[in-house]
Amino acid sequence: MDDPGDKITLRQMQIFLAAVESRSFLRAAEKLSLTPPAVSMQMSRLSECLGAALFEKEGRSVRPTEVATALVPYAARMVETLHEAVQVVEALQGRIDTQVRVAMVSTARNFGPQLMQEFRKRHPEADLQISIANREGVIAALEAGRADVALMGRPPSRVEVTAHQFAKHPYVLISHPDHPLARARRIRRGDLVHMPFLVREPGSGTRMVHEHFFRAADLPLPRAQEMDSNANIKQSVMANMALAFISAHTIALERQAQKLAVLRVEGMPQLRDWYVLHLSRRPPGPAARQFVDFVRTEGPAIMQGLFGPDFGAEA
Predict the structure, then answer these.
(1) Which pick of 49, 95, 197, 204 has the fewest CB atoms within 10 Å?
(2) Is the pTM of this model over 0.85?
(3) Is residue 314 part of a domain?
(4) Do 155 and 173 belong to one domain?
(5) In the 8-state DSSP scheme, what is residue 190?
(6) Are 161 and 177 in contact, with CB atoms under 8 Å apart?
């Protein structure tokens, strides 16, 4: 009996993924430099091979069926494997891969561009590309192959990564300089339970610090308003609206301008780590490997130059 899979091609998988992503045969055709009839014909053949409908018309768009949705991760793996194979062949042929796509969490924007610029000075041939997102966005970029390397705090647990620690990451508690607690020499955790706070979304580094700070002492979580960025949190604290836990690496300028105060709280600062990492199943190309090695070896000194050896260490 013939195997239906024998007639399925990698090109069909590429067209299929483009159609799913764009929800349109026309846009998929434009993306792949094909004609819409060619896309439609290939998707019809793929449906015939699988014995199941893959798309349903929805006005001028198409909607993936349940079968198509189930097929997506397998098609993506096939296309990704082909891409990796081509990269290996090119590397063996002496073609230097100059692309370095770095995804970083929003907190890392305070030093990530400097790291990349220092790397560019030593490797001017490198094609550096940067993207900044929240933690989930960075992990998604790695999984989807849109990023070669990531700069972030705690490595993800849902995907296997190769991670290298290169700097300490202090978290502190901040207030407006005129807040009554800003003058206190030592603040107990229990003194903060009834204070209003500002927090990031669940799963973020600062949100985890916030929750751990109180739960570790068996204290209830204080009233808190959620905000979508550190910039908004800083502006709100500078308006004396509330307190907030935040990365010390995000407030250097505000502290110098005396717009924010770091509170002397027991158990603070909390030290975490910064990592440069990549997916274990997808080793980075030559230039991206050079960037990883650069951050591992030169990153500590660059971070110290930016923030000082003991930045954020005072309690």
Answers:
(1) 95
(2) no
(3) no
(4) no
(5) G
(6) no
Which residues partner with 171 through β-bridges?
Answer: 247, 270
Query: What letter would DSSP give residue 51?
Result: T
Q: State how many domains the chain has.
A: 3
CATH at 209: 3.40.190.10
The pair of three-digit structure tokens given for residue 30, joined into one six-digit string: 């434009």
The reply to whether 250 falls in a domain is: yes
Residues 84 and 107 in one domain: no
Q: Quick one: CA torsion of 144, 149, 151, 157, rounded to 10 degrees? A: 50
Contact 17, 79 (CB under 8 A): yes
Beta bridge mates, 243? 197
CA separation for the pair 205, 235 (Å, rounded): 19
In the prediction, which pLDDT does 90 show? 66
CA 306 to chain centroid: 22
The mean predicted confidence, pLDDT, of the chain is 89
| Domain extent at residue 183 | 169-271
Token readout for 61 is 């768009």
Q: Are residues 173 and 267 in the same domain?
A: yes
DSSP for residue 144? T
- Only one residue has tokens 């060619």, namely 38
Does a structural domain hold residue 56?
yes
Least trusted range by pLDDT, from 92-101, 212-221, 249-258:
92-101
Residue 117 to residue 96: CA distance in whole angstroms: 20
> With 90 as the cut, is the pLDDT of residue 147 above it?
yes
pLDDT tens digits, 104-139:
998 899 899 999 999 999 999 898 999 999 888 999
Looking at 72, 92, 112, the residue that finishes a domain is 92
For residue 132, list its beta bridge partners: 104
Residue pair 277/164 in contact (Cβ under 8 Å)? The answer is yes
